[in-house]
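Researcher: Next sequence.
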Amino acid sequence: MKLYIISPDIPEKIKDVYYAFLKLDSNYFKHIYAFQLRFKVLYNIDSYEKYIIDIKNICKKNNIYFIINDNFDLMMYLNADGIHVGMDDDESYSRAKEYNKNNTECKKIIGISCYNQLKRGIDIMSHITYVSFGCFFSSQTKLNPIARPNPQIIEEWKKISSIPCIAIGGIDEYNIKTITDYKPNYIAISSYIWNSNNPIKALKLLVDILVQC
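Model: Next structure:
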């Protein structure tokens, strides 16, 4: 079980990610599966591109996948490892699927949000790399979540598919074991780390908990 780290929504806070990764003990990186750049609004990438590229290089050095949320063009521009798409991102999903069809030797990762819907993942199983379920708890990132599933959906998915699944939504040091009991492949974390007074300490604490699971 590894962490799937999601960036803050606010582009200005990408510096926090860079400095946290820069200072993080190298042995902690092996417990991180991927980093997702999640900017819902980005008018000008130029102001942040240096930090983004540096983060991408840190990820590559430590065998961490660099994923873009929703934006196919940004994924291609940054030559990211893949894309994560939500309920309303059909165009990005279709373009990523078409890209993989035409580039079988260097396919992109495609992850999708399934919320509380097993069928959403089942219907496109042959085209995706992973699925995510949640929001499982109250979240500062998702103030009005589409769904609040029972964690048992993780077990249900694992019975029907070997495609990895991610648990997401309001997970922190106090409730993470509630989720790990259901054995998701990855645990998605965002606001717990980036809204913390000490992001490095918060990240290390979660890794230490996962190691014990």
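Model: The longest strand covers residues 109-115. Residues 15 and 171 are 23 Å apart (CA to CA).
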